[in-house]
Amino acid sequence: MEGHSTYQPKGKVAQWFESRLPIVGLIHSSAVAYPVPKNLNYMWTFGAILTFMLVCQIVSGVVLAMHYVAYGPVAFARVEHIMRDVSYGWLIRYIHANGASMFFIAVYIHMFRGMYYGSYKAPREVLWILGVIIYLLMMATGFMGYVLPWGQMSFWGATVITNLFSAIPWVGETIVQWLWGGYSVGDPTLNRFFSLHYLLPFMIAGVVGLHIWALHHVGQNNPDGLDIKSVAKDTVPFTPYATIKDTFAMVVFLIFFSWFIFYIPNYLGHSDNYIPANPLSTPAHIVPEWYYLPFYAILRSIPDKLGGVLAMFGAIVVLAFLPWLDTSKVRSAKYRPLFRQFFWVFVVVAVGLGYLGSQPAEGGYVIVSRIFTAYYFIHFLIILPLLGLFERPKPLPASIADAVLAKGAKGGAAVAGAAGPGTH
Amino acid sequence: MTIRSSLFGAVAAAFLLAGAGAPALAAEGGGHDNRPHRLSWSFAGPFGMYDPAQLQRGFKVFKEVCAACHSANYLYFRNLTQEGGPRFTEAQAKQVAGEYQITDGPNDSGDMFQRPGRLSDHWPAPFPNDNAARAANGGALPPDFSVLAKARSYHVGFPGFITDAFIQYQEHGVDYIHALLTGYADAPADVHLQPGLQYNKYFPGNQIAMPKPISDGQVEYTDGAPQTVDQYASDVSAFMMWMAEPHLDSRKRIGFQVMIFLIVLSGLLYFTKKKIWSKVDH
């Protein structure tokens, strides 16, 4: 899909530079001339929002790192120093902490978009798998970042999650002590988590580069799930069409983000994390941040430690196999009425698992968690493969241009013979 | 299909359980299913600000009553003069600091020595270390006050926790602390008090080591505010909120400016987007 660039450098300096490092041409072909299906909806703006959030987290994180010290006896105090004495330190800290939640809200919408419209299907399998890798890196980064303030939840959440690796047969205990740098979560753990928390976002940035490259090579999916037949009739150039739409969506997202930063900055956190870490006092309820709750519920559903760990990681790894588990030849749920219903049931189950992850693992909560966990895997491993074989999809439009025209006609507008400048 | 009908049954069961089964096992406040009442605070809501008079009264309560046992290690005497706080003058803050002896040193002979406090010192802790604090308080450690108003909360069930995001409720801590201070009562007949503990309606488990810290008329207010436990509790809770979030005033003020800017910007971008896309079928 790239290679549509018509960039010809004007001026001697521009030509000199372009013949040595064709970066301006690359930007032109990726972000100016790059053809984008004209039927995209706002679900497609979350890629740009995510890129923005990654930059936001890196910038705010680097500034925080200038004032933070990853040493147990002072870490909590340093965060308070940032909140009280560093100029606008409170703002940078709240941007970074709430930014992590915003990052995950955006990534979940982005992933559910992919699942709904079949964006993981051929030829976008590698694109999807790169996305799963980015998601795993994000989870690792977020986990380690939450440990850094060294509050009660930081310490005990780290203890619970790192202890999971002891479930590995034979080498588990050794691996966990190697991870900890000791015989329990302590100062070495905090220090290395800080180092890795600084490193991983740059690995995310690298995989995001591959992700965008894979995307641009095959082109965007679209809400109708149709291939691009004619660049002239089906697409518009990225600039100005997608640029302005992404910018608008980003600003709306910033309004949502700012609501949290300025008015309810501690809403998504846990009050126990304002208690300094105390290895001798366990909180009554250890819960991770909200974006891990569904997987926490899955982990606790299985009565066996190793089984729970395998189920939790399996719940993420199964996503990587989605392109092959879904056997339907039709991409978009718009034309798959049965799949659409199962999709929304899956969304309810995922959100339900999130709620269950926040509750104590007792009584009725355990029973429902087990049912929902079973359903989660049944959705991927049984329902999706069978749906493709038995479902009767709705007839697909001939092309994106036809789908757009049909939508216009349905809306009561006069059917345009030919669209405007973009089609010639 | 059987999978779906049993699923709907499970979802219904989950909601029933969520409603009925919110056990009082939460370590957060609200023992015996007692939820703290939500008071109206001057610093609540999008245009909330601290009331300097209330903060000064709260500081007086903290200084005369609470500081005997509770430390406030992140409170510096200079904080008392900063914007958005109790608005003491520099002279007043210096005088307060001067009332305390701070350990400093070592001097050139290698000795530690005592000297009067300065603006750059933090609030002196009443005990030299945690063990001394426990020994003086029957084995219980009086928690540090600096972020205590953010370190306490109480269980808000469904759908409260969703509406709280819209009404900007962030005062869980101060509502809980106020409730705790006014929640001392005689133990009901069916409760057996452990030795050394007192009954409190809002403390998790209902048995708290801290004896009732304050009674009516204990602290003298010079501005005419009522000298009741309820007033003392409100004032010291507000002061604790300020200690925990000293920049709240500017956070909400800047937040308003940012929201207006972003809303105007999004409006402009929306119409620009419409204009650009007007020639294209989509």
TrEMBL record, chain A:
Subcellular location: Membrane
Cofactor(s) listed: heme b; heme
Primary site of residence: membrane
GO BP annotations, alphabetical order: respiratory electron transport chain
Residues in Cytochrome b/b6 N-terminal region profile domain copies: 13-224
Regions crossing the membrane: 42-70, 91-111, 126-148, 155-176, 196-215, 247-264, 306-325, 337-355, 367-390
PROSITE patterns the record matches: CYTB_CTER, CYTB_NTER
One Pfam family, short name: Cytochrom_B_C
Top-level lineage group: Bacteria
InterPro entries given in the database record: Cyt_b/b6_C (IPR005798), Cyt_b/b6_C_sf (IPR036150), Cyt_b/b6_N (IPR005797), Cytb/b6-like_sf (IPR027387), Cytochrome_b (IPR030689), Cytochrome_b_C_euk/bac (IPR048260), Cytochrome_b_N_euk/bac (IPR048259), Di-haem_cyt_TM (IPR016174)
Stored CDD domains: cytochrome_b_C (cd00290), Cytochrome_b_N (cd00284)
Sequence ranges assigned to domain Cytochrome b/b6 C-terminal region profile in this UniProt record: 228-398
Cellular-component GO terms for this entry: respiratory chain complex III
Keywords: Electron transport, Heme, Iron, Membrane, Metal-binding, Respiratory chain, Transmembrane, Transmembrane helix, Transport
Binding site for heme b b562: 96, 197
Binding site for a ubiquinone: 216
GO MF term list: metal ion binding; oxidoreductase activity; quinol-cytochrome-c reductase activity
Family: Belongs to the cytochrome b family.
Subunit structure comment from the entry: The main subunits of complex b-c1 are: cytochrome b, cytochrome c1 and the Rieske protein.
Biological role stated in the UniProt entry: Component of the ubiquinol-cytochrome c reductase complex (complex III or cytochrome b-c1 complex), which is a respiratory chain that generates an electrochemical potential coupled to ATP synthesis.
Protein's UniProt name: Cytochrome b
Species per Swiss-Prot/TrEMBL record: Xanthobacter dioxanivorans
TrEMBL record, chain B:
Compartmental location: Membrane
Cofactor(s) required for function per UniProt: heme c
Cleaved signal peptide residues: 1-26
Cofactor comment text: Binds 1 heme c group covalently per subunit.
GO cellular component: membrane
Keywords carried by this UniProt record: Electron transport, Heme, Iron, Membrane, Metal-binding, Respiratory chain, Signal, Transmembrane, Transmembrane helix, Transport
Organism: Xanthobacter dioxanivorans
Protein's UniProt name: Cytochrome c1
GO molecular function, one term: metal ion binding
UniProt KW Metal-binding keyword: yes
Positions annotated to bind heme c: 66, 69-70, 210
Cytochrome c domain sequence ranges: 53-185
TM region positions: 254-272
InterPro entries recorded: Cyt_c-like_dom, Cyt_c-like_dom_sf, Cyt_c1, Cyt_c1_TM_anchor_C
Family membership noted in the UniProt record: Belongs to the cytochrome c family.
